[in-house]
Amino acid sequence: MDVTFWEMIWPALGRGLLTTLQISAVALTLGFLMGIPAALLRVYGPKWLRWLSVGYIEIFRGTPLLVQLFVIYYGLPDLARALEGLGIEAQFLVLDRMLAAYVALGLNSGAYQAEYFRSAIQAISSGQIMAARALGMSQFQAVTHIVLPQALRLAIPAWSNEVAYMVKYTSVVFIISVPDLLARGQFIISKYYNPMEILLTVGAIYLMIVLGLSTIMGKIERAATIPGLQMEVERG
Amino acid sequence: MSNAIVRVENLHKAYGDTEVLKGVNLEVDEGEVLVVIGPSGTGKSTMLRCINLLTRPDQGRVWVAGDEITAPHADVNQIRERVGMVFQDFNLFSHLTAEGNVMVALTKVKKMSKDEARKLAMFELERVGLSDKAQLYPAQLSGGQKQRVAIARALAMDPSVMLFDEPTSALDPELIGEVLEVMKKLAREGMTMIVVTHEMGFAREVSTRMIFMEHGVIAEQGPTQQLFYNPQHPRTREFLGKITELYGHEQGEA
Question: A202, B34, B150, B253: most buried by Cβ count inside 10 Å?
């Protein structure tokens, strides 16, 4: 690839990359904030909250992300209009493109993250909670101070997977015309008619980003390792 | 009411169709060291767990130091603070150091400052002979050391009574001694203890009273000497005989 061609496409791709990273970061954070309580409620909640959590998780895991994005971007404004017809002000349901992308990807990621956290929480032996309760801790204290710090460590590998997945999965937002990395690539293709070169370039950028993030997650995983535990696993 | 630290009245517990406890009555006075023996599956552990309500009995009442923990509006967490518990499989918090294990309930439950909690944690670890291991994580400790940290963790809460649920059953034989030594020291210091164990040497040396449980009830109880040398119930005699066979002469010899 000659330098001038790179110089031509880079500004657009760079802006797209920024959008992709921004959506990924917000969606992963929102997903984390949804996933933790959803997992906790599913494991420890009273029956009705357990069902609420299961409902959320299954709906967002069981339907295509594209459908969710459509419903949130196009469907909610319809609902807002219907409500206004009834005299109920509901402008907050009308989201701009970026916000719709954040919400759809965040809620979707939250459903998957909830399941990662749930399996990690359930891997912590019940004896840990029993010991905490025996010391006078409330159920809430036992979960926040004893179970979660251990479960979050266990969930790191699965969470790294979600990070890698999210960076690429954000590309569905082209459907509501959010100009992310892949969408920018497609604009340029229609401009220069050289799809292979540009798609390979876009693919290489995704690859480098994911590799970089995987390295960072690996470092976090090692830093969070509990001393001695590896040894014990090997011995077992 | 008497000066009983623990009082248990007509305790019943069933898991499905299996009745584990069928009406247990028990009173433990201050300074008593009570050893509970009996075949497995007869409700010894369940009884211990009912005392601090880790298991909720189907029927019956439990008092700890005068407060009824089974009362409808009892502050269970607050009463539990006064009941130390040591488990068969230690249950140390694996993400915390030995010191952290002792500290966490002090700061979160007793609301002590970090400095205060650390000082007390070091004192309790010293008491079980592990002050040099304070910064190690559970996975870096031997089984015997883990159980001693667990004892220190319970002691730090300044309990009125300590419950031991087969504290040496998960240990390699050569590690049992160090845990029993710590428990004997506690007993000599006057701690009220209820110990489920098959360590007959420990029972004979430090317990003041023994209980033989079978089929969810207390089949026989009495002062240690009496239960050891002159058991009334034929099943008690048989059980003690079996333990002697299993665990060797030195421990079970009667």
Answer: B150
Q: How far apart are CA A14 and CA A153, in angstroms?
A: 33
A125 touching B (Cβ < 8 Å) = yes
**Residue B38 Rama label (left phi>0; alpha psi -120 to 50; beta):** left
Residue numbers in A near B153 (CB within 8 A): 135
Query: Nearest-CA residue of chain B relative to A230?
Result: B139
Question: A47 to chain B, minimum CA–CA distance in Å?
Answer: 19
Name every chain A residue with its beta carbon within 8 A of the beta carbon of B81: 135-136
Contacts of residue B170, Cβ cutoff 8 Å, sequence gap at least 6: B88, B89, B90, B143
Ranges assigned E (strand) in B46-122: 59-64, 67-68, 83-86
CA B178 to mean position of chain CA atoms: 16
Edge-to-edge order in the sheet of strand B209-214: B83-86, B161-165, B193-196, B33-37, B209-214, B217-223
For residue B135, give the DSSP letter.
Answer: T
Domain ranges of chain A: 3-235
Q: What SS3 state is found at B7?
A: strand
Homologous superfamily (CATH) for A3-235: MetI-like (1.10.3720.10)
Quote the CA–CA distance of B108 and B121 in Å, as a whole number. Answer: 14
Print pLDDT tens along chain A (236 aa).
566 888 888 889 999 999 999 999 999 999 999 999 999 999 999 999 999 999 999 999 999 999 999 999 999 999 988 888 888 888 888 889 999 999 999 999 999 999 999 999 999 999 999 999 999 999 999 999 999 999 999 999 999 999 999 999 999 998 898 999 999 999 999 888 888 989 999 999 999 999 999 999 999 999 999 988 764 454 44
Q: Give φ, ψ of B196 to 5 degrees.
A: -90, 115
Of residues B195, B222, B219, the one with CA closest to residue B210:
B222
Instruction: Kindly state whether B54 is in contact with chain A, defined as any CB-CB distance less than 8 angstroms.
Output: yes
Pairing of strands B161-165, B83-86: parallel
A108, two tokens: 């979707």
Q: Does B159 touch chain A (CB under 8 A)?
A: no
Q: B95 CB near a chain A CB, below 8 Å?
A: yes
Please answer yes or no on whether B91 and A138 come within 8 Å at the CB atom: no
Chain A residue with Cα closest to B135: A227
CB contact under 8 A, B91 and A150: no
